[in-house]
Write a structure and sequence with these properties.
Blueprint (H helix, E strand, L loop, with lengths): L1 H17 L18 H20 L1 H14 L5 H8 L5 H20 L6 E2 L6 E2 H22 L11 H9 L1 H7 L10 E5 L5 E4 L5 E5 H8 L11 E3 L1 H9 L22
Parallel strand pairs: 3-5
Antiparallel strand pairs: 1-2, 3-4, 5-6
Helix pairs in contact: 1-5, 1-6, 2-3, 2-4, 2-5, 2-6, 7-9
């Protein structure tokens, strides 16, 4: 699966960004819920491990789920993830994370894309699983790029996230116990390479940077902090509620709260 290669490429880009940091810099808080770089990396590492286990060892994955459910009782998910990794942090965490990501990528490259895998919620296909890992890596990385004052240079592999945003149009409303307000708006997005990606046939329109569209559907940015052209009530409602990730409904960050922090 190409998505497994894309996942590793996105992970490698973030690993290279973090390579020059000293250990105490991993304690820097980001604009995402105040999570530190350490907390973000632990989160990515633990769930990469979980995705790998769900593909390669169903019994071990079941044990992981049992440990996770016990670990979060009366505690926060980041606390469980820190305990699960025995407090791993800094450069040792970075190296362990990238090493396991390489293993995970190799396993998914040769997997049947349609293979059904157990997960925390409903089962999903192997293709959906590794695409979710790519999306989460890209989305959480944004908080790290922002706090380090680095403008990320994206690649066309974000097309996977664009498609995920499109495919979760119905999910966004179902998750909020709402009916879709109408047909999905038409998308006309410029990829990092300059080609145009188009989806949908609705009368409403969302046009502009594919990277900014990905930032909105992953809730890394408020639509007000992008240059996306949004025409029509349905398009505006979608961009105010879009959520391409699982879990209870969440609102996007307030305007002006997520940005590249230039020193």
């Amino acid at each position: 699966m190409q998505q497994a290669i894309d996942f590793l490429d996105e992970t490698t880009s973030l690993a290279e960004l973090l390579a020059p940091l000293v250990d105490n810099q991993f304690e820097k808080s980001t604009q995402f819920k105040g999570w530190t770089i350490d907390i973000i990396l632990r989160h990515l590492h633990v769930w990469n491990i979980a995705a790998d286990l769900s593909l390669t060892d169903e019994a071990a994955f079941a044990n992981f789920l049992s440990d996770m459910m016990a670990g979060i009782r009366g505690s926060r998910l980041p606390d469980f993830e820190k305990s699960y990794l025995n407090g791993l942090s800094g450069q040792k965490l970075r190296l362990a994370w990238i090493d396991r990501a390489k293993t995970t990528s190799v396993h998914f490259i040769s997997a049947d894309p349609k293979m059904r895998l157990k997960w925390v919620g409903p089962e999903m296909s192997a293709l959906s699983s590794i695409t979710a890992r790519l999306m989460e890596t890209w989305a959480h990385a944004q908080a790290i790029y922002d706090i380090l004052g680095v403008v990320r240079v994206d690649h066309d592999r974000i097309g996977n996230i664009v498609r995920l945003g499109v495919n979760t149009w119905d999910w966004t409303w179902k998750n909020r116990r709402m009916e879709p307000p109408g047909p999905m708006p038409r998308l006309k997005l410029e990829a990092p390479s300059g080609i145009i990606w188009e989806y949908g046939t609705g009368e409403d329109l969302i046009e502009g940077s594919a990277s900014e569209f990905c930032q909105v559907v992953t809730q890394c940015r408020n639509i007000a902090d992008t240059s996306l052209k949004v025409e029509g009530d349905i398009a505006r409602q979608w961009m105010a509620a879009a959520q391409c990730f699982a879990g209870p409904p969440e609102d996007p960050p307030p305007p002006g709260s997520r940005f590249v922090k230039i020193a």
